[in-house]
Every structure is written in C-alpha cells, then in structure tokens.
Amino acid sequence: MRILKVIILFIVFQVSAQQGGMWIPSLLEGMNESEMQSLGSKLTAKDIYDVNNSSLKDAIGHFNGGCTSEVISPKGLLLTNHHCGFSQIQSHSSLENDYLKDGFWAMNFEEEIPNEGLYVEFIVRIEDVTDAMLKDVSEEMSPREKQSQIDKNRNAVEKNIVKEEWQGFKIRPFYKGNQYYLFVTERFEDVRLVGAPPSSIGKFGSDTDNWVWPRHTGDFSIFRIYADKNNRPAKYSKDNVPYTPKHFLPVSLDGVEEGDFTMVFGFPGRTNEYLPAVAVEQITQKVNPSNIAIREAALKVIDANMKADDEIRIQYASKQARIANAWKKWIGENQGIEKSGAVDIKRQFEKEFVKALKDQGKEAAYGDILPEFEKFYKEFESINVKRNNFVEVFLRSNELMQMMFRLVQMENTASRGDEAFERARASMVNRLKGIHKNYNSAVDKGVFEAVIPLYTSNFDASIYNKTAFVNLDSALKLLEGDSKTVLQKLNNDVAYQYAKPLVLEFYTNLEPEFQRINTKINALQTKYMKALMEVLPQERYFPDANSTLRVTYGKVNGYAPRDAIYYNPVTYLDGVIEKYVPGDYEFDVPQRLRDLYATKDYGQYADKNGKLPICFLGTNHTTGGNSGSPAIDAEGNLVGLNFDRVWEGTMSDIYYDPEICRNIMVDLRYVLFIIDKYAGAKHLIDEMKLVHPKK
Ligand code: ARG
Ligand code: GLU
C-alpha cells in the first residue's frame, strides 16, 4: 500500500512536472520534442519549426503586436479573438451599422473592410546571437558599462543580418539577458475585416465571466491578409490580392477530449517566473492589494454610473473593461499565490540553491545574490508601491489627472524650442480629443474623489468646477496662442495648479529613485538566472515571455478549484442557454442562436454525442498576448482558439502550478458553427481544409 502510494506520487509528480513553460520554437529538438510525444503528440520539432520547408510556424502571426492570429485557408484567411479585433470592429461601427452589437460578415472579397494601422507579422527565422551580443561583456562591468557594450554589439550584429529587403528583424534578450535571439520577420499591413459575431456571442458573459470557468464565449473574429502581386507585404491597395501563405492550419471536426494532447503556438507578452520569494511577497502583499483597492474604488463609481445611464454605459464600456480586466486578474493572482503556497515553495527552492552553492564551492561567485535581493527589495518596497499607485491613479483611472500629466510633459518641451512645443501641442490636442470622445466629467469627478485619497491626502475636488479641461472646447481654447501665452493660461488653471506639483514630484523623486533601485534589481536578476542554470542544471528553465513566438503544450484537463469541486474541461451550448438572461447586457442570447439550439441544428459541428461544444480547458502555460493563439492537436490541426485563463490560475505569470493553472479555448467547431449556421457565411468554410483525424 505504502509502496503503491509512493509509486503513484512519483508518477503524478512525473506527469505534473512535465508541464509549464513557453518554449522557443527553434529549440524544441530533444527535451521538448520527446516530452510532447510522451503527451501524445505525433509532431516532430521540424513539423513545428523549419527554416527550409514550410512548417506550423508559418501560419502564426503576431496580431498588431498585442495578440496572436493564425492563417486558416490558402487565401490568407486569418483567425483571432473577438476582443483582439474589438477596436477594428468598433471603428467600423455606427448607430446604423452597429457591428459590435449585431456582428459583421463580408459575403465576398469586395465587402471585406481595410483597417488602417493594423498589421500581422510572421517569423521567418530565429537565430541565436548570444555570443555576438555579449562579446566583451564581463561580470566586472557596471550595469551601465554592460549596456553600452551590448548596444555596440547590437550595431555590429544588425549590420550582418542576412535577409530580403522587404523583411524586418528584432533582437530580444532571453533568460534575463543571458541569451539573445534574432527574429527575421515579415510584416503585412493590408489586413481586412471579414467577419465578427455579435458581442452577445463574441463577448458573451462579459466581465462577470471574464477570467472564469465554466465559460461560454465565442471569442473570435476573422480577417484576411492581402499582399502585392508577388505575394509580398504591401501597404493597402485595391490592387492587392489575398495572401498565399507558406502554411495554413487545417481545421479538425473531431475536436479533442479530456487527456488529449494540445499545443498553443503564439506570442505571450510578459511573465516573471524566476523572481525570488521576497519579490513575490512584495507583489502579492503590497503592490497588488493597493492597486486592486484603487481600481476597485474607480470601478465602483464607473459601474454605478453605467448602470444608471445608457449613454454612459456605452461611453465607458471599453475603459471599464480595461480597468476591470487587470483588477480581476490581480485578485485571482493573489489568491492563487496564497493557495499554492508559492512563496514557501520558492523559499524552499532557495534553500536548495544555497546548499548547491556550498556543495559546488560557488559561494564566492553567487553567495551574495539572495541576501542582496532581500536588501534591495526592502529598499524598494515603499517606492515601488508608491510609483505603482501613482501610475494607477494618474494614468489608469482618473482622466483629468491623465490630461494634467501630459500637460506637464507638454510644458517641459517648451524649453526645447518652438518646434518641439508645436509637436507636443498637436499631440496634446489629439489626446484631448480622444479622451473627450468618451468623457463624462461627473463620472470622472466621482473617480477622482474615490481614488485620490488612496494616493495623497492633498485633495481638492472643487477643481472640477473651475478647470477648463473637463470640457473639450474650453480645453482646446486654452491651448491656443503662442507658447508663452499657453503656458501662462495653463498655469492659471486650477486643476493644473493642483496636479503639477504632484507630477513634478513623480519626475524628480519617484521615478529616478524607482529606476535607481530597479536597475540594481534587474542586474541581480540576470546574475541569479545565470547562477540557477549553472548550479541547478536539472531544473526546468524556460525563458520568461517577451512577446516573441513560443510553443507551450499540455493536455485537455479539468481542475479542482476548491474542496469537493471538480470542473469538467468542456462546456456545451446547453450551458449558454442555462446562462441566458433576456435583454441582459452580459447574458443575452440572440434569437437565432436560441432557434438553432431548439432544433439542434448543429450539422457537422456536433460532437460524437450530438452536443455542440463551446469552450475547453488545457494545461497549456499561456499569458496575455496568447489571446487568439491556435490550439493545435497531436497531428497539427486547429482545434481551438485560446482566449483566457481560469481565475484560480492567473498566478501562472509568476508561478505555474499544474494542479490549478488552465488556459481557456473556444472549440473550433463552435467557431465554424457560428460562421456557417448562425451567420450563413458558408463560403468561408469552403475555403478551409476540414479534416477528420480521428476517423
Ligand atoms: N481576460 C482576457 C484577457 O486578459 C479577456 C479580456 C477581454 N474580455 C473582457 N470581458 N474584458 O485579455
Ligand atoms: N485574454 C488574454 C489576452 O488578451 C489572454 C489570457 C491570458 O492572459 O492568459 O492576451
């Protein structure tokens, strides 16, 4: 019995140890390839990334720098999330053509809508340039000397890049600056909107369901890449033609079920997996709680106003979603760190590190790292919290203070001459117009009264009654005249008089002090990463996310968030109907979808039990930026579209716990069902390659 338990524990440990990580696609051969195959993958490393032949990576595009997308047809059809295409969908919407509310479907190429500024970038090649980038960089150098040597090396590397003239490149640090990789890229700038479901499908459940399982959101939208006649990247032109990709993903009609292998291929933005315990404590005990409190105070005011007034509801919809998204994530992150015991686990790991240093006689080289972290983070705490809170109050929640922050910057440009001032004024005018498009001064004053006391006791809400900036016309009027006149008027404005000393304090005290300590911490983190990989080489090291292309993989799997609760990994259309609240802002369901449910008209998109799957969970290690990433099955077919994580597992940005961290994907069969049966855009399905790998 005892032995059996040990064996089971060992197996569980082995399996769960094989989880987590966002890997560099060009380095999968060896450990990752065999791990993936042990999880059920039939793919080789070369199927995923190959320089000389087409491979899966050729279908994966960085969507406007913030999300991921994938090519799903030989004619450049591109799939991403609804929330990734949100601002494009919104920009083409009006009261008459409300694509946000009703959805949009181009029925032919001519109806596809161009999007200024939108781009999709592919990775042509990845190269390790560590040696060249770290040439003549030594331990003895100060952080500043190091940086200037690295900058010099970068110039040399850039001169020698082999690439076509239409291609671009990026060089990025990995493993906290211990390695560098070069990415040769191809950026397409003619990307047109093809289709989007109504928000009642694409954003179903809205903020209540955001970060939450069980989930029932059809979070997808469709675009198409256009290229010039030579199939190369080109600015928008009516003469451009649909792009012929080097690879596009076939779509599986068989889906996946619990235990099946999945991989997610995309551009994760930022993680911090190698922080010392003291840093995790500071984030969860000091930074997160104060940031959460500020956002909570702001949301209370905004939510109440949105509920009371329809115009405000529309005006504040996307601001509210942005504030609420991180607010909710941080709460989940803190709970997850607590529940998983991440700080204690990190402390235990640090003990092993110290022991290994001793055993290997490396205390002289690395023995100071952990004590220095303790010292630096103690020194860092109050300034780190204060700077975070400043950013939250002045740049994320209160809009009058945001205007003031930018106005102080504008005033500072005046000393650099008229030309600099003119440029700053023009951009300020644009910024003011942008803010005032969706601005309500009563709401903003309420936010001010709620958040300012959380930053400073110096508080005067009466500025809202007298400042020129709560109204666009008077704000623009104040900015008229030569620079001297403008600055004079500005310095007579009560809101400016109130905010300027606070902003100047940020620039003269807060920011320099923050950067001074942060530079030391970053240099130490670089050394810590190097030491870990050298002293404990058997551990699992993947580089933190940095918005470059990565592979993560795992299995379809449910989880147990609390005692006696187990969440199944798949949701069905039945669950959409269960959540349906007629006319509700978050949980309304379109009549047509209810009709299709009533007649069970699912066509080829039903699963083998005749049910229509909506979303599913996996153990893939993802983060922000992985939105829109394809979930790929064991054979390289598209089965899902990543769009979120479960609340209990959002701490995976800091600490990945395979027991509880899950990513959330839309089932591709639901996407196809909506395109075909709901929207009647069968011509898009006909472009795709549908496959039945399980038959
Ligand atoms: N939580 C997801 C992400 O971090 C989805 C956000 C969009 N949805 C929303 N309800 N705000 O981006
Ligand atoms: N929704 C996130 C995004 O837009 C992905 C979810 C996550 O953070 O894992 O990138």
Commentary on this structure:
Helix 10 packs parallel to helix 15 (369-397) and helix 10 (277-308) packs antiparallel against helix 18 (441-451). The chain has 2 domains: 1-106 and 189-266 and 549-621 and 628-695, no CATH class; 277-533, no CATH class. It is globular and about 75 Å long. It is built from 26 helices and 20 strands. It is α+β, with helices and mostly antiparallel strands and 695 residues long. Residues 67, 622-627, 643-645 line the site of glutamic acid (GLU).
What is the average of the pLDDT values? Answer: 95
Radius of gyration: 26 Å
Number of domains: 2
Terminus-to-terminus distance: 41 Å
Query: How much strand?
Result: 5-15%
Low-confidence stretches: 1-17
Rough outline: globular
Number of helices: 26
Number of strands: 20
Task: Please describe the biggest sheet, giving its number of strands, its sense, and whether it closes into a barrel.
Answer: 11 strands, antiparallel
Q: Can you list the ligands bound to this structure?
A: arginine, glutamic acid
Helix content: 40-55%
Which structural category do the helix and sheet elements fall into?
A: alpha+beta
